[in-house]
Amino acid sequence: MVYVCPFFSENTKYFIDALSRMPEVDMGIISQDPPDRLDHHLQGRLKAFYRIDDCLDTAQLTHAAAELTRVFGPIHRLLGPSEHIQVQIAEAREALGIEGMDPETTRNFRDKDRMKNLWRRAGVPCARSRAVTKPEEAWELIEKVGYPVCVKPLDGAATQSTFRVEDDHTLSEVLRASGPTEQRPLQVEEWVTGSEHSFETVTINGRHVWHSLTHYIPGPLDAMQNPWIQYQVLLPREVDDAEFDDVREAGRAALDALGIDTGLTHMEWFRKDDGTVAIGEVAARPPGVSVMPLINRAHDIDFFTGWCRLMIHHEFEPPRERKYAAGCAFLRGLGAGRVVAVHGLEKVKHDLGDLLTDLREPRVGEPKGLSYEGEGWLIVRHPETEVVRDALNYVVSNVRVELAY
User: Fold this and answer.
1) Is the N end or the C end of the chain the one with fewer CB atoms within 10 Å?
2) Cα gap 181→188, rounded to integer Å
3) Alpha helices in 245-313 (DSSP H)
4) Whether residue 324 sits in one domain with residue 226
């Protein structure tokens, strides 16, 4: 089993740890990072390692996998949870005859215009949008949907290079700076107003066998545009309640339209102001923003190992029940520079007591985080969803990360 990861991020190491502990797996890694950036105990579990310059280069990735095959024998699975390298991994799999999602299906998940067109044909509720290759196409869409609109790369992820545009002047500036072309189009779509959520699904051989969902507080783009917000993710206990019937139906229809066979998917969806559902986009990989640890805490399971077994053996044992609601509050400093102090955290830890299950404290001296996840986070859980919601609000109201140069 070969795991592809451009860099050894904190989240990536959870997957490496889970995969490398599976007794039936000989594990190799292809990465841009050198192996000495892994913890020693993880290095010692690896069967093979191959370093390349660019994981976004299919030729380099295929060559690395072919060399590992030559030395160690056939690769049974070539995997990687990073959103940006899914197509390259699929192309390498196809070139070497390795089982897994094919490139055409993978592009259904990466190309947002292609995704939305498939959904519209299948009757899946989603925003009106257009792939823009020249400025006049953007203006044509504006005439139909008005402002605001969302402008982002066709293969974007995690709000990167994503903008809310509210007027002609701003749209002109974004189009001028981005310069959309046939080779590099932009996705322009109507701005959906309402609350934002995620929907996670485990699918085996085309059959959807398990799901979860979360509430974003607020939406990720709102958090990025308002640096004072300390972002929250709430995983409710009532995941099977009737209020989510429409989400489950629309979410599964959206996955069927894209052709998912086996995998874990992470979908973003909206509860619009009028109460209806709109599907935003979906990725064929594990979720970020601490959703995996939240699922662990809600069910008392190891979901990282569960993903590994799903992808390697096409097996998944759904948790019998959701024992708890769980939530994550991201500790995010206002301003710029490095962390110089963290205020209120010790009292919050004391007051939360047994509600607190996980904590990554902001470290004095570390630089400002580049995303809405900030410089640290903590996870709480309780059998009642409202208790978790109140605890998250208490955290973000009382913890302040101080930054300075």
Assistant:
1) C
2) 13
3) 245-258, 291-299, 303-313
4) yes
pTM of the model: 0.92
CA–CA gap between residue 25 and residue 19 (Å, rounded): 7
Distance CA(148)–CA(121), nearest Å, equals 25
Instruction: Convert the pLDDT of each residue in 32-54 to its tens digit.
Output: 999 999 999 999 999 999 999 99
- Under a CB-based contact definition with an 8 Å cutoff, are residues 197 and 271 in contact? yes
Q: How far apart are CA 145 and CA 30, in angstroms?
A: 44
Q: How far apart are CA 397 and CA 393, in angstroms?
A: 6
Per-residue pLDDT tens for 106-147?
999 999 999 999 999 999 999 999 999 999 999 999 999 999
More confident call, 245 vs 157? 245
CA distance 35 to 5: 12
The pLDDT, as a whole number, for residue 224 is 77
Residue 97 DSSP one-character state: T
pLDDT score for 364: 97
Instruction: Please identify, among 142, 157, 190, the residue that sits at the C-terminal boundary of a domain.
Output: 190
- How far, CA to CA in Å, does 180 sit from each of 104, 153, 175? 23, 9, 7
Q: For residue 106, give every residue at least 6 positions away whose Cβ sits within 8 Å of its Cβ, in sequence order, or none.
A: 86, 87, 89, 90, 284
Residue type at 377 in one-letter notation: W
**What domain range is 48 assigned to?**
2-100
Structure tokens at 118: 């498939």
Instruction: Collapse the DSSP code of 16 into the 3-class scheme (helix H, G, I; strand E, B; otherwise coil) and give the result.
Output: helix
Q: Assess if residue 271 is contained within a domain.
A: yes
For 190-239, the pLDDT digits (tens) are: 998 899 999 999 999 999 999 999 999 988 878 877 888 999 999 999 99
Instruction: Examine the pLDDT at 340 and tell me if it is beyond 80.
Output: yes
Evaluate whether 392 touches 329 at the Cβ level (below 8 Å). Answer: yes
By C-alpha distance, which of 205, 230, 239, 219 is closest to 373? 230
Spatial CA neighbour of 311 closest among 100, 110, 104: 100
- What local confidence, expressed as pLDDT, does residue 395 receive? 98
Same domain, yes or no, for 73 and 202? no
Same domain, 134 and 173: yes
Domain co-membership, 295 together with 387: yes
Give the separation between CA 13 and CA 295, rounded to whole angstroms: 18
Other CB atoms within a 10 A radius of the CB of residue 274 amount to 7
